Amino acid sequence: MTDRNRAARRLEGVGSTIFAEMSALAVRTGSVNLGQGFPDLSGPDTVVEVAYDAMRAGRNQYPPGRGTPELVDAVIRHQQRHYGLDLTSDNVVVTTGATEAIAAALLGLVDPGDEVVVWEPYYDSYRAMIQFAGGVRRPVTLRAPDYRFDVADLEAAVTDRTKLLLLNTPHNPTGHVFDRDELEAVADVARRHDLVVVTDEVYEHLTFDDHAHVPVATLPGMFERTVTISSSGKTFSFTGWKIGWVSGPPDLVAAVEGAKNWLSYSSGAPFQPAIAHALDHEGAFHEGLRKDLQHKRDYLCDALDSVGLDVHVPQGTYFVTTDVSALGHADGKAFCAVTAERARVVAIPNQVFYEDGSAEGRHLIRWAFCKEQDVLEEGIRRLRAADLRA
Ligand SMILES: Cc1ncc(COP(=O)(O)O)c(C=O)c1O
Predict the structure, then answer these.
(1) Which uninterrupted H or E stretch holds 323?
(2) How far, in Å, is the centroid of ligand 1 from the Cα of 90?
């Protein structure tokens, strides 16, 4: 054995994910895991059947790098049906989940030294992949409690080295759904500075009340500069299948594919026709999921409020953020250790989704409500029974 650190420098600060860390803590402490965002229940049986049939029919070898034609066509129909976007197969590439799409977009579009404007708090793979690409993060902060951003902050973050705006709506972890005004501001900056927008829209179907998801690619002059990322994981509750896709203008999609070819090349042969079937025929599933999640959001928000936390009600996704200061805690990480030990419930400290040293998220915690009702109730029963004060 050697004492030398043999890991590459590009892994500095991004060696593990907070989700793996907190899920391990949940197992170790026998906790209810309200941390990692995976649903308790699988997606529709009909979709599972199509995957079985595909496996039995021998669809078990490498699918095309661009994606199985049925899935590419189903993505094209989905974008037309929901957003009125007219795409062809030159506009779509299938990826190993949104995670690979994010990686391939950043590796395929960012050169070392290029600046990437990213809204914080941000999903943790953004930091890793900007770093792997040699890019420089320029954060714009979404501020509690409504998590809108200040357009002046966006203007200030853009320099002559900016290459790309990395957007996520509906937004994880805050649950903020960017409205048309905010997206117009993003589009205005992108057009004026000739920037590419990469937008992660994996929660596109999971919005609540009257908050509708607007893809930034549908705004005037934006399609030709936007890479839109989505995935079947959240929409159809098949997070483990890792079927995602990218859509956009041919040159940007080709750049993403150019990087993706050297990551997985392709994956998920029998799952691709299954997700094609889901996109074409199982819209009722995500509509039902949306309604169910809205009830669970209401339940969990009320319950967390009753535990003494300050709740920021989400407009979409399946996460709710709470401020733990009211219970006398200044540090979310320490609070998560307290809930794991005293209540045996695990959540995620939001501070890891902010730039190092940022005070913005230090006292914020994310809870997932994509869980069975009895799991949520058991989590709340435990939180109520424990003394959570600092
Ligand atoms: C904002 C966001 N992007 C991407 C992903 C990853 O998507 P996938 O599982 O399709 O790789 C997640 C999963 O939690 C997410 O929350």
Answers:
(1) strand 319-323
(2) 24
